[in-house]
Amino acid sequence: MDTAIRLLEETGLPDLSMRRLAGAIGVQPSALYWHFENKQSLLAAVADRIVGAAEAAPATGDRDADVTAAAIGLRDALLSHRDGAEVVLSTQALGLGSEATHRRLAQALGGGDAAASAATVLLQFILGHASLVQQRIQAARFGAYPQDEADVVATTSADFSAGVRMILAGLDVTG
Amino acid sequence: MDTAIRLLEETGLPDLSMRRLAGAIGVQPSALYWHFENKQSLLAAVADRIVGAAEAAPATGDRDADVTAAAIGLRDALLSHRDGAEVVLSTQALGLGSEATHRRLAQALGGGDAAASAATVLLQFILGHASLVQQRIQAARFGAYPQDEADVVATTSADFSAGVRMILAGLDVTG
DNA sequence: ACCTGAACACCGTTCAAGT
DNA sequence: ACCTGAACACCGTTCAAGT
């Protein structure tokens, strides 16, 4: 499991194969199938580790501040592991992995049905955003995108804050 | 190219291999590399076809109505091809494929810098949303998610409208 | 200009058999 | 309970050679 995260960091998701992981552990590929039903459930475990790093923020009572902190925490967690957003997005989409992330956002949003629905919107924006940023960083890294990594992060941070602010403002108007 | 779309429809993205596509055309796999540099650029061409199906909506002058129509048109285009959202998301992220989609959204939003930035947010939400919905539909199709396809679409349509409304409302407050 | 044939270096998953 | 060994049915990409 720690080896899986390390391998993700070193080689990226496309190269995180069952064979390679087995090799890094020093075991036969087939041995992994004793511990995980298939590759997908192994990745779900990896996804839980990644979002687990987003600490539960101390609630300040200021809703906008709490939501913004939670959103930034999640974005940072996703971006701090290579291909983290993609791993979490596909896990989330398949209904695998824990629901702690959605719960945390819904709570910061104040709880209740409207908050749960807003949390879904926010989560989808964050995952879509982070996936795009991350693949773009990857492309930049081997020269396939005409910006360096720092520029990509700088440019997109503004987009991210704008997105979070819009969703919060919209919640007040429509909710 | 049409064969690639047909294959995507029939077998899905994971099974859309260069070998399988070549077989369906009746040609050797290596022949494809005369027409496309690699699999990624082939997929970029597929992505352009998918979003190309989202017709330019007739501008009514009502900004919210135009944006909503454009957003729904894009969502429908993504969802109407199997794995369409994933194909377009990764193409977009790599800076491959055309920028017509972003342009269309920015225009519906009124043009200018603020509109371009809002279009980015909206596009990321739509792609994140559609990816999630689509993978969930796929999961439902082979019983790995406890809802049927119709329920998934119904449930998430409400989330989608809510997201678009929030972003529009937010734009008025922050822009 | 466009395609074949053959090769290179890989995949995920299954399953009998071993300890 | 946990792992090996061997197999099955695949991948993307390259490149000399053919027409």
TrEMBL record, chains A, B:
SUPFAM superfamilies assigned: Homeodomain-like, Tetracyclin repressor-like, C-terminal domain
Q: Which GO terms describe its biological process?
A: negative regulation of DNA-templated transcription; response to antibiotic
Chain coiled-coil ranges: none
List residues annotated as DNA-binding: 17-36
Q: Which Gene3D superfamilies match?
A: Homeodomain-like, Tetracycline Repressor, domain 2
Q: Does the keyword Phosphoprotein apply?
A: no
Keyword Transmembrane helix listed: no
Q: Which UniProt keywords apply?
A: DNA-binding, Repressor, Transcription, Transcription regulation
- In Pfam terms, one family for this protein is TetR_N
Q: Where is the HTH tetR-type domain?
A: 1-54
Q: Which domain of life is it from?
A: Bacteria
Named from the GO MF annotations, one term is: DNA-binding transcription factor activity
Protein name according to UniProt: TetR family transcriptional regulator
Q: Which organism is it from?
A: Microbacterium paludicola
